[in-house]
Amino acid sequence: MSYSSAGISSRQIRVLRVIARLNVGGPALHVSLLNSGMDKRFMSWLVTGTENPGEGTLLDYALARGVEPVVIPEILGQASLAPRDVAALIKLIALIRRFQPHVVHTHTAKAGFLGRLAAWLVGVPVVLHTYHGHVLAGYYGRMRSAGLLVMERVLARMSDRLIAVSNRVRDDLVSLGVAPASRFTVVPLGLDLEPMFDAKRHKGMFRRELELQPDVPLVGIVGRLFPIKNHRLFLEAAACMRASGSEARFVVVGDGPLRGSLEERASQPDLRGRVFFTGWRHDLPKVYADLDVLAVSSINEGTPVSAIEAMAAGCAVVATRVGGLPDLIDHARTGILVSPGDAVALGAALGRLLADPGSSEQMRAEASSEVRGRFMASRLVTDVQRLYLELLGSKGICLPQFADTDETKANLA
Known about the structure:
Radius of gyration: 22 Å
Order of helices and strands: EHEHEHEHEHEHEHHEHEHEHEHEHEHHHH
CATH class of the largest domain: Alpha Beta
Number of strands: 13
Helix content: 40-55%
Low-confidence stretches: 1-10
Structural class: alpha/beta
Number of domains: 2
CATH topology of the largest domain: Rossmann fold
Shape: globular
Number of helices: 17
CATH superfamily of the largest domain: Glycogen Phosphorylase B
Strand content: 15-25%
Mean pLDDT: 91
Oligomer: single chain
């Protein structure tokens, strides 16, 4: 396959994105918005694997934006190698040879391994990988983490550019020796936040569903029920608040393999009747409109979508000081950060905001304004298109001048 510069300026730039699965979370939103938002000079395909049980899916979100992914069932988001990975690699190589992309852009760890290897073997001009976080700390045991680190260092050499969603994620990866800082570009998440900015029109609906009075404090957490999210810490913080006399109620939005054990903990006498489990919800503006505070209790994070959405909706956020959260939240100005793993500190911070909601009014306003400026989908698409063109140009491939962002905004409308 030839990628000579002759004639390319008169054709669309072909982009193949690969993600392990479209489970509920930031990466699936990210790739759906990128595929649907590119201007008319880009032709994009999205390749995905299959979701793990209990993760939920954002396939409908992608389809609603005109993105019909190519599904390779053998791609599974698991940090292990198996015969199915060979089958997935063969299928990816066949797709790349068929579509002849100028750019292969991968997201999430398993897709990053298979997609970058396939692109390197075929000889795609530009290969990129986005780290929405990383699984090199806090996910697996010492030996597996060491093996994954070696793999990421090798894959970095197959990549023309590595993208991190925050400065903190980049710095973590540099400190781990994945690649030097010069190989990274920071491109923050971009999201469709307009429904969140308009969330207040739903006020009262979620509380009525839960049969809660308007004056009952409500604290929520939104995300996969998975060890790295540390919902157990959230429940222990709730228990601390209850022990101090708080009348708050707590809601867990999401699902996953830990739901049973978390429900068992919530059924204990100190929390009985005070914690609601809703499963996955597709009406999050209604949820955020009725939360007094959102908690993020994670052990590690990239940039959590739930925190960005809550901030856009005018909901106060208390989060652990991990991963990209300090890049997102300016402590005491746009939210509150607490030490990871400290249930007492998390509960105390939540309690302070509930006790004096007026004191957080300026914080909530500042947070909403900040995410509007930093995390809109149109900004994400503009940043990524510029990067593609820069890298293709550096390879001597002649491409048209970058298009007006007005068209990008129209594509995302």
